[in-house]
Design goal:
By secondary structure, chain A is mainly beta. Chain A is built from no helices and twelve strands. The interface of A and B includes residues 43, 46, 99, 103 and 105 of A.
């Protein structure tokens, strides 16, 4: 069975600094997708960034980038120039390659941004 | 472009009662998935509906059931509520593309269910 692990229950970062959130996963599949979702106090899950396993290039979305290490089954999220609005729960998630398969979430990392 | 709409926002029920939660998917989406998120935890997959049928199911008892309507909206029903059913229930919609891959879910803001 596929699993997703986030070893950092809580993280904090100074405003304008950079922070990296860790995620590891376990799967025997070769075709899959990885995601980072943000859940602010408003509760709505927001997709931050996604990575296709077949792509070697790390995904980037503005201040957000990932370090995808397929062999190590590691998928970390780097947030640059942190802003107060980045404070939220961050969930790492996995899905097999079929578009209608379920998404498996990790336990989450609570990120605080210090002014 | 309307996103995913869930109702009600909050709900308080008594142990043993039954509850129905509702979800309208994002315009153009045809698949609805339901997740249970206990406080301080990641969402857990309950089931997924596509073409009005339950396509996948997570490790949840039969007390949890659902339905998808022809307009793609969906309901989640929970019978014989237990205190442990207290959680945030999230609905997520997506589009199945035959031969292509979609880009993940669009989530609603959830229904906070409290069982007392």
């Amino acid at each position: 069975a596929q699993t997703v692990t986030q070893s950092q229950p809580e993280m904090s970062v100074q405003e304008a600094e950079t922070v990296t959130l860790s995620c590891t996963y376990d799967t025997s599949e070769s075709d899959y997708y990885l995601f980072w979702y943000k859940q602010p106090p408003s509760r709505q899950m927001i997709l931050v960034i996604r990575q296709e396993a077949y792509k070697q290039q790390n995904a980037t979305e503005n201040r957000f980038s990932v370090n995808f290490q397929k062999a190590a089954k590691s998928f970390s999220l780097k947030i640059s120039d942190s802003q107060l609005g980045d404070a939220a729960m961050y969930f790492c998630a996995y899905r097999r390659g079929t578009s209608y398969d379920k998404v498996i979430f990790g336990p989450g990392t609570s990120l605080s941004v210090i002014p | 472009d309307a996103g995913v709409t869930q109702s009600p926002t909050h709900l308080i029920k008594t142990r043993g009662q039954q509850v129905t939660l509702r979800c309208s998917p994002k315009s153009g989406h045809d698949t609805v998935s339901w997740y249970q998120q206990a406080l301080g935890q990641g969402p857990q997959f309950i089931f997924q509906y596509y073409e009005e049928e339950e396509r996948q199911r997570g490790n949840f008892p039969d007390r949890f059931s659902g339905h998808q309507f022809p307009n793609y909206s969906s309901e989640l029903n929970v019978n014989a509520l237990l205190l442990g059913d207290s959680a945030l229930y999230l609905c997520a919609s997506s589009l199945v593309r035959r031969g292509l891959v979609d880009y993940g879910y669009t989530f609603g803001s959830g229904t906070r269910l409290t069982v007392v």
